[in-house]
Design brief:
Helix content: 40-55%
Number of helices: 17
Strand content: 15-25%
CATH topology of one domain: Rossmann fold
Bound molecules: NADPH dihydro-nicotinamide-adenine-dinucleotide phosphate, (2Z)-2-iminopentanedioic acid
Order of helices and strands: HHHHEEEHEHEHHEHEEEHHEEHEHEHHHH
CATH architecture of one domain: 3-Layer(aba) Sandwich
Radius of gyration: 21 Å
Structural class: alpha/beta
Distance between the termini: 28 Å
Strand order of the largest sheet: 1-2-4-3-5
Shape: globular
Length: 447
């Protein structure tokens, strides 16, 4: 980094947060963008904004004991990082995956601050989760785990305090168990305390679809800005969870041909276009694996064990599984095969080197904090509906989501242009997201 203030603060972040590579990576990426506004905002330096922004307001770590189906006591670790509440209550998902640790939750919480700011809605940033692995667990085990997790977490939550939702390994089933236990412990029907709820008990239409839809809409906006479109173009999607499934559906609706899906065991290529209904049935209803998709689909669909989904030639890529799943080699392969646009459905799926490869090749690149903001934005719409005890139609909610994604795209482009970086969505997203939070923090004084 050329700027000494940014470099000094970054060195301090490294010293104070050792052994947290994903968190350090997320901070570095934001700081590299902030170089473009240094000198313009001396008030940010005077008020210690950079270091305050990197230090979570509160970090909660707790024991989660539960009993499995064999009667054995299991112990997991629970986390909630309440990162920044300058713009609203802490808002962000819960991730249940064996790889979860404090550094992962901090990286996700840090990203969430700027993402939530970009939505234009009144939500602060937070994230949480556990190293619990739901794969292969019975409904009863998942329920007992969620109840134990909430028994501690509930005292830190509230519709005006901290509002969790889903992320990897946390979907409608888990939100149901979590909300049930919150309701029981507090003796309150406080619908706005969690989002991603079932439609019968305070959930919002379109929330389930929102992240995947939003990532495809963001890609569409980037393509349109370059005089292109989804029409007839091949799309690769990684992952086969909540984000991936609905990124596939929306890609198809926009006229594209989604040809891949994946999970941690390998990927599927379906040259005829992924059959959205079949994938949804296997993954959402039956909780099956992607291998079954290839078996049941027949007719040209094949499963590739291991390997890289990014080897499949496509025009548009929507990485929608997990962090750092797309490295520089994968990016070079995509570029060689003529990729035009990459829109991050997941959080930080592209490594910094991969992002540079796309930049140098002039590929339109939408960073996660802009491209996947549709999920949390629709969570905020769910909170609005809960606050007014109302329920909106699918059409109205989808229209709001589409407009929000278009606004985010416009804000990123406009900010990048202002800073002399036309078309650089990374700089646009980081700076636009950061400024709003920084200005609110200045208004509040040093707290
Ligand atoms: P799901 O749990 O529904 O699906 C996750 C998918 O990614 C699965 O196919 C899973 O495969 C795969 N995956 C997860 N971890 C790994 C890994 N380490 N290596 C390879 N594959 C992996 O999660 P979501 O779809 O909700 O989340 C996907 C991404 O989108 C995450 O980065 C999340 O943070 C981000 N996101 C989610 C939002 C939401 O609203 N849900 C909003 C914004 C971002 P397997 O089953 O084999 O593990
Ligand atoms: O990463 C994310 O934005 C999410 N997992 C969704 C958060 C939310 O509160 O809906």
């Amino acid at each position: 980094m050329i700027d000494s203030m940014l470099q000094d603060t970054y060195d301090q972040v490294l010293r104070r947060n050792p052994g947290e590579p994903e968190f350090q990576q997320a901070v570095r990426e934001v700081f590299e963008s902030l170089e473009y506004i240094q000198g313009r905002h001396p008030e940010y330096n005077d008020q210690g904004i950079l270091m305050r922004m990197c230090e979570p307001e509160r970090q909660i770590i707790f024991r989660v004991p539960w009993v499995d189906d064999q009667g054995t006591v299991q112990i997991n670790r629970g986390f909630r990082v309440e990162y920044n509440s300058a713009l609203g209550p802490y808002k962000g998902g819960l991730r249940f995956h064996p790889s979860v640790n404090l550094g992962i939750v901090k990286f996700l919480g840090f990203e969430q601050i700027f993402k939530n700011s970009l939505t234009g809605l009144p939500i602060g940033g937070g994230k949480g989760g556990s190293d619990f692995d739901p794969h292969g667990r019975s409904d009863g085990e998942v329920m007992r785990f969620c109840q134990s997790f909430m028994t501690e977490l509930h005292r830190h939550m509230g519709e005006y305090t901290d509002v969790p939702a889903g992320d990897i390994g946390v979907g409608a089933r888990e939100i149901g168990y979590l909300f049930g236990q919150y309701k029981r412990l507090t003796n309150r029907y406080e619908a706005g305390v969690l989002t991603g709820k079932g439609l019968d008990w305070g959930g919002s239409l379109v929330r389930k679809e929102a992240t995947g839809y939003g990532a495809a809409i963001f890609a569409d906006e980037m393509l349109k800005a370059r005089g292109s479109s989804f029409d007839g173009r091949r799309v690769s999607i990684s992952g086969s969870g909540n984000v991936a499934i609905y990124a596939i559906e929306k890609s198809k609706q926009l006229g594209g041909i989604p040809v891949t899906a994946s999970d941690s065991s390998g990927y599927v290529v379906d040259e005829n276009g992924i059959d959205f209904e079949l994938l949804q049935q296997i993954k959402e209803v039956e909780r099956g694996r992607i291998t079954e998709y290839a078996e049941r689909r027949g007719n040209g669909a094949r499963f590739v064990a291991g390997g890289s989904v990014w080897d499949v030639p496509v025009d548009i890529a929507l990485p929608s599984a997990t962090q750092n799943e797309l490295d520089a080699d994968a990016a070079r392969t995509l570029v060689k095969n003529g990729v035009q646009a990459v829109s991050e459905g997941a959080n930080m799926p592209c490594t910094p080197d991969a992002v540079n490869v796309f930049r140098e090749a002039d590929v339109a690149f939408g960073p996660g904090k802009a491209a996947n903001a549709g999920g949390v934005a629709t969570s905020a719409l769910e909170m609005q509906q809960n606050a007014s005890r109302d329920a909106w139609s699918f059409e109205h909610t989808e229209e709001r989501l589409t407009q929000i994604m278009k606004n985010i795209h416009h804000t990123c482009l406009e900010t990048a242009e202002e800073l002399g970086r036309p078309g650089d969505y990374v700089v646009g997203a980081n700076v636009a997201g950061f400024r709003k939070v920084a200005d609110a923090m200045i208004a509040f004084g040093v707290i």
